[in-house]
Amino acid sequence: MNHNSISEIRDLLDRHEIGLKKRFGQNFLIDSATRHRIGSLIAQVLPRPLPGSGEIWEIGPGLGALTDELRALELPLRLFEIDRGVIRVLRERYGEDLPIEGGDFLDTFRGLPAPGAIVGNLPYHSAGAMVPRIVESGLAVPVMVFLLQSEMVDRLVSPRGCKTYSALSVLVQSHYQVERAFLVPAGVFYPRPQVGSAVAVLRELPHRPSREVTEQISLLTREAFGQRRKTLRNTWKAWLPALEECGIDPGLRPEELQPETFRLLAEHLRGVPGAGQPRAVRDGR
């Protein structure tokens, strides 16, 4: 099909009696140059051979615009799609060649072996829950490439001290090196969204935290950034002895701490041998 043709997309949706649902955040990529650019980026950052299950997971394939780019890589591919009508279109286009997991990705990915990469044009309304859930799940995914709302990418890449630095920034940066690859204008989507987008690349850090430490990082960040203008002395009262043991100044605010400092404290609280030693992090730097 011609993914650049709005009329062809409308005809296909009408033929399958698919009404676009706001809750699914369905915005189709209708610019071939942007699709090729994303596909080329994915090909460039993929580890070879793909570890884990050796699959690429695509979240929210829609009508298959990015899927076609991924199929050109000739690597095992698994799709995750929530809209039943769209699943019918995908089955019609690809037959049984591609495994398709129907339902909410946050439910359907559980129990599957970790993939070699996760990619997707993520729905704006659910990406904020989806990305941290992947990290918290313990899946060791070497590379993730997502097309996201620009504002969310700002939060993912934000350094400490910035207004956009958040619990999400800390959690993701504790596990991944995050890069904003390029911006994507609203005009390359149908329907056209009200905001701009960007492509983010997440590369797994060496020696990622254990799942238990990840859970502790999540707890620490929720407590800290729920009252981000308060000092750690006030937000982490139960953990003041641990702060002292790790050499972290309780007079700092959470937005002044590096992700590595959150991890240091989380490892100490979870009893990781050698955590907090020999490096003291008195100023969060």
UniProtKB/TrEMBL annotation:
Residues in a coiled coil are: none
Q: Which SMART domains match?
A: rADc (SM00650)
Superkingdom in the source lineage: Bacteria
Establish whether keyword rRNA processing is in the entry.
Answer: yes
Q: Which UniProt keywords apply?
A: Cytoplasm, Methyltransferase, RNA-binding, rRNA processing, S-adenosyl-L-methionine, Transferase
Give start and end of each Ribosomal RNA adenine methylase transferase N-terminal domain.
42-206
Q: Which Gene3D superfamilies match?
A: Ribosomal RNA adenine dimethylase-like, domain 2 (1.10.8.100), Vaccinia Virus protein VP39 (3.40.50.150)
Chain positions recorded as S-adenosyl-L-methionine binding sites: N27, L29, G60, E81, D104, N121
Q: SUPFAM superfamilies from the entry?
A: S-adenosyl-L-methionine-dependent methyltransferases (SSF53335)
GO MF terms, alphabetically ordered = RNA binding; rRNA (adenine-N6,N6-)-dimethyltransferase activity
User: Which InterPro entries is this protein grouped with?
Assistant: KsgA/Erm, rRNA_Ade_diMease-like_C, rRNA_Ade_Mease_Trfase_CS, rRNA_Ade_methylase_Trfase_N, rRNA_adenine_dimethylase, SAM-dependent_MTases_sf
Q: Which GO terms describe its cellular component?
A: cytosol
Similarity comment: Belongs to the class I-like SAM-binding methyltransferase superfamily. rRNA adenine N(6)-methyltransferase family.
This chain belongs to the protein called Ribosomal RNA adenine methylase transferase N-terminal domain-containing protein
Source organism of the structure: Alkalispirochaeta sphaeroplastigenens
